[in-house]
Amino acid sequence: MRLITHNMLSCNIKGVTNGFPLRIEAGNVIEKEVEFNPDFLRHMFAKLEWKALVEGARSMGYAELPEDSPDAAVLESDEAFLKKLHHALLELHLEEGALVCPETGRKFPVNKGIPNMLLHEDEV
Amino acid sequence: MSSRIASIRLVSSHREVYEPCDDSFALVDALLADRTNLIEHNPKVCMEIGSGSGYVITSLILLLKNEVPGVHYLATDTNPIAVRVTKETLEAHGVDADVVCADIATGLDKRLAGSVDVIVVNPPYVPTPEYEVGMEGIASAWAGGENGRTVIDKILPVVDLLLSDKGWLYLVTLTSNFPEEICLMMRKKGYASRIVVQRSTEEENLLILKFWRDQDEVSHKEISSPTFLAHFSRSLSLLMEKRWR
Question: Keywords of this protein's UniProt record, alphabetized (chain B) (predicted)?
Answer without folding.
Answer: Methyltransferase, Nucleus, S-adenosyl-L-methionine, Transferase
